[in-house]
Hints:
Keywords: Membrane, Transmembrane, Transmembrane helix. By secondary structure, this protein is an all-alpha fold. The protein has helices at 3-27, 30-35, 37-87, 92-120, 125-139, 146-174, 179-197, 204-229, 241-257.
Amino acid sequence: MSYALAISIVLAAALSAALTTIIIQRWIAFDIRRQHHEVGSVVFLQLGVVFAVLLAFVFSGTWNEYNDAAQAANLEAGALHGAALLAATLPAADASAVLSAEQNYLQAVVSEEYPIIAKTRAEDTGADLKMQMLIRTALNVRTADPDQHDTKNAILSLLTQAHTQRGIRIYEGASGVPIALWCVLIGLALVLAFSVSFSAIQYASTAVAVAACFSAGIASILIVARLLDYPFEGALAQPPSDFIVLSGKVSTLLGATGTGPAH
C-alpha cells in the first residue's frame, strides 16, 4: 500500500461519513435520534471497548513484528560482517573463496530476495542456495594452523547465527494478521462510524465534522497497522540498507586479498 492509496482511503472514509451523516440529518428527525440516544450510547461504548482492545492487540503485534524483522536483518548483517572480517585473516585463496561466496549471497539478498519477499512474501530460493554455498565454502577451508582452525570454527558459528536470523527475517516478512481479524476490525469500525453519524447532535455541521473526524481517525490507525503488517512491502517497507553497506565492506576486503570483488 502506497502513501497515496493510504491518504485516499482516509479521505474516502471521512467523505463517506460526512455524506452518511448529512443523509441521516436530513431524513431522520432529531427527536427520533434522541429517543434512541441512551441505548445507542451504551452499545457504542461496549463495541468501542471491544474495538479498542482488538486494535491495541493488532497494532502491538504488527509493531513488534516490524521491529523484529529490522532487528533480524541487522543481526544477520552483523554476523556476516564478523564472518567476513575473520575470513580476511585466512590465507589469500581461502579468504577469497569465502568472501566471494558471501558477496554473492549479499548481492542476491539485495537485488533478488527483498523484491521477491515484497511480492510473494516468500524467500528467494537462489539466495538460500547461495547461503548454503557460503556455509559449505567455509566448511571446506583446510587449515593446518591451530589458530586458523579456531578462526574457521568462529566463522562457521557466525554463519550459523546469520542463517538463524535469516530465517527469522523471512518469517516476519511472510507472517501477518489473519484476514478474519481484519474483517472483524473493519466491521466494528463501520458500526462505530455509523453510530457516530446517527448520534443525537442537533446541528448538522457539527455532526458532519464529528463523524468525518472520527472516521478519518479510525481509518488512519487501521491503515498504519496494515502498513506495519508486512515489513518488507508497502510504503513503510524496510530497505536492505544493512546488506548494501555490508556488500561494500566485503568488496573492500576482497580487494585487500588481491583478487578484487566478485561479479
